[in-house]
Amino acid sequence: MGAEDRRTPAGYVEALERAAWREELPGLIRLSGSDAISFLHNVLTNDIESLAPGQLRYTAYLTPQGRMISDADVIRRADDVLLAVESSVATELAERLDQSLFSEDVRIEDWSATWASLTVYGPDAPRALASAIGFDAAALEAIAPDAHEEAGDLLIAAHDRLGTRSLRVLGPREARDRISAALAGASVPRLEEEGLAALRIEAGMPLFGVDMTTSTIPLEAGIEGRAISMMKGCYVGQEVIVRILHRGQGRVAKRLVGLLIDRPETPPRGSPLFADGSNVGSITSATWSPRLQRPVAMGYVSREAAVPGNSVYVGAPGGISAQIAAFPLT
Questions:
Q1: Of 116, 155, 266, 303, which sits most exposed with the smallest number of CB within 10 A?
Q2: Would you list the DSSP string of 14-46?
Q3: How far apart are CA 145 and CA 159, in angstroms?
Q4: pLDDT tens-digit series, residues 93-117
Q5: Comparing C-alpha atoms, which of 166, 121, 125, 118 is closest to residue 146?
């Protein structure tokens, strides 16, 4: 990696200190009908019935074998529920949910083709977004993490999962284009993909389709604290999760960990990881961290190797050394 490749991506500093934005094309599924909440509560891993209108909750949808079909943000509105997922899984997920219906009063619609989203990151996100959409900045500032507010045809959801204030705007695609133009016109920088990757890896936020797949058990990815309710009744895949947690004391064969790379080269995704001459895992995401001034990564390693402070080698035994680290990376 040359020095020019270790530049700070546009918008990275602003996302941490002021404001930066990035457009998205999410998968969005709408569920309506009198049984929508109870239906989702019975199939998803988190507690959906306790959600009040104006709240959102992170969750997962599993196979009966406990493997992930998708993760999702469940967004409760007054008259319906939205599932925000990765766009690559939206169509299949909507079909799976529809096939799971029996006599429930639930209507499922895939809104992915007509809705889009844009997220403004940073402590000044409420002010920057308010100016772009003509809304009250104080009202946006007041949105608590994992809650949302509606502004006309827009839905604005707040979270702090990347270690910085974030406001995600969901709405018609033309609205996203209008807002992004207003933000650019106000000199709010667009966050480059590399900058978003750095924020995500530093915070330890696995991405479905990259760091989590349909072979992943949520406990391996370490998302159980956010995505799984330990108090609710049955959901699809619960038997496997409970067996691991209670009979196996939470032990899984591999775990997702953070990696601090000891050389300036950023290793490619899929690079194998070695300890004591044996392959113990592989990298799922990697990028240059401007804040830490070194490459950072996340990847799966065997349970025995997944101890913060342990050293592993990237690429080959005796290759580039890296230290396993807990999230968030520091």
A1: 303
A2: HHHHS-EEEEE--EEEEEESTTHHHHHHHHBSS
A3: 4
A4: 999 999 999 999 999 999 999 999 9
A5: 166
- According to DSSP, the β-strands at 154-159 and 56-62 are unpaired
CATH of the domain spanning 253-330: 2.40.30.110
Q: Which residue matches tokens 């990757």? A: 197
| Fold designation for 3-195 | Gyrase A; domain 2 (3.30.1360)
CA distances to 138, 172, 175, 215 from 130, rounded to whole Å, are 9, 18, 14, 41
Residue 176's identity, in one-letter code, is: R
* Mean pLDDT, residues 218-224 taken together: 97
Query: C-alpha distances in angstroms, 32 versus 59, 61, 170, 295?
Result: 18, 18, 18, 45
pLDDT > 70? residue 243: yes
What would the mean pLDDT of 186-214 be, rounded to a whole number? 97
| Residue 198 tokens, joined | 């750095």
Q: What is the mean pLDDT of the chain?
A: 95
88 in Cβ contact with 64 (< 8 Å): no
Dist. CA 53–CA 48, nearest whole Å: 11
Q: What is the pLDDT of residue 270?
A: 97
* 253-330 shares the fold of 3-195: no
